[in-house]
Design brief:
By secondary structure, the chain is mostly helical. It has one domain.
């Protein structure tokens, strides 16, 4: 393993680490898994694409402001 992360294919654990490094204080493995159960997109292999996840989060936040 080269030590590089692919933002389009991260394990849940790595996605949480990247989001924390980017400044998110509220994401945890539990909240990410809960979001996935609520419909957040995942790749066929169960990994997370951060761009797709961020887009889903924005859509969900907009839906809450209706």
């Amino acid at each position: 393993m080269s030590g590089k992360l692919n933002p389009s294919s991260l394990s849940i654990e790595d996605a949480v680490k990247v989001l924390h490094a980017a400044g998110s204080q509220h994401v945890s493995e539990e909240t990410l898994r809960s979001d996935i159960e609520a419909g957040a997109p995942v790749n066929p292999d169960g990994t997370v694409n951060l761009v797709h996840y961020a887009a889903w989060m924005v859509k969900e936040m907009a839906r809450g402001s209706d």
